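User: I'm curious whether this sequence folds into something compact or stays loose and floppy. Could you predict its structure so I can see for myself?
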Amino acid sequence: MLVQPVTARPRQALWALGFRPFFLGGSLFAVLALLLWGGVLAGALQPEPPGGMLAWHRHEMLFGFAAAIIAGFLLTAVQNWSGIPGLSGRPLQGLFLLWLLGRASWFLPLPAWLVLLLQGAFLPLVAVALARPIIQRRLRNNYPIVVLVLLIATCQWLTLAGWLNHNEQWQRRGVLAGLWLVAAMMSMLGGRVIPFFTRRGLGNMSPTPARPWLDRACLAASVALPLSYVLGLGDQPHPALAPLFAGLALLHGTRLVLWHDRGLWRVPLLWSLHLAYAWLIPACLGLALWHAGVAINPSLAAHALSVGAMSGLIVAMMARVSLGHTGRPLQVPRSMAWAFALIQLAALARVLVAPFTPLGLGLSVLFGSGALLLFLWHYLPILARPRVDGMPG
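Assistant: Here's the prediction. I'll summarize afterward.
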């Protein structure tokens, strides 16, 4: 039984819990980063961050945007898991400021060691903030989450080391390993919340059937894949890895079939979660084919994962979590359904259109930016104001 947290919250609602500043800051940053990247691709902008714009794009969409949303979600969820008040007030402000300085450090005249410190300190501090209540309450089921955050931080340090040493191979391995670790976290957390949200959203109050074998198999395979990138096995096709990727695609597909209820297609907060999770299947199958020797671009699988699965799940989860943790009804306006659809279109444009015409890249940037702008339009006042039910948080 959880202990209900009793604590004085800061007067400013924005700093009451981690999801508020990090969902807002991460979304706004992603819009700016996408528009900047689109301007670079179109030849209209020519910024020169250290290491070049490709290094910046690779690093920031994962360790800037996704890391912010992961931090906001986990720093909020850990309060529910443990019953111990989550990070708020000045400590939360300090952590957010560190994240913000990391984003700005690419374009500031700073020594390389300071850039590395600003960039690389954020995720370890998030892990520490998560570990304290989890260890204090001995929530062993959540220990892997802390480990995953630390592993993602390790991949970031590998990427930064490659940037510092002008080693393209290290940068690529660090980003791809980190991306698949985020997929492992999506698999772990998605396995908990997607079936739960689906059943509750459709009025089914019965417990979600437990399938520990499936959850463990998904997590084990999802963690094995990033290791292959760190070891350099993702640089060239390795036939031995094809069955691993194909097997993981089968596991994800099995989950979706077991979670499915035809009623979910009437509820945008539900179909958005299922469609985003479904992108894990083509991401895995694409790499299974590549490792089996089929002549396809592995970048397409990476973008199916990063745009379709990761960004899609981020927008859907931010929409659901922000309503639930501010005491509002779990209903979104019709335009938010368009936001969920635009993320799907962004992924389709990047994966299916971009290989044939550069127009696909522009459409993907346009659709992705539109989805995030719609989120900000509706959720900025929600995240910046107190809960409507008067409860703390």
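Summary: The radius of gyration is 20 Å. Residues 168-201 form the longest helix (34 residues).
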